[in-house]
Amino acid sequence: MSRDNRAEIGVIGGTGVYDPEMLEDRRDVKVYTPYGAPSDMVTLGTVKGRHVAFIPRHGRGHVIPPHMINSRANIWALKELGVKQIVASSAVGSLREDYKPGDFVLTDQFIDRTKERPDTFYDGGQICHISSADPICPTLHDYFYQYAKKLRLPVHDKGTYVCIQGPRFSTRAESRLFRQWNCDIIGMTLYPEVVLAREQEMCYVTVAMVTDYDVWADKPVSTADVVETMQRNAENFKKLVMDALTGMPEERSCGCCDALKFALI
Question: In the chain, which end has fewer C-beta atoms inside a 10 angstrom radius, N or C?
Answer without folding.
Answer: C
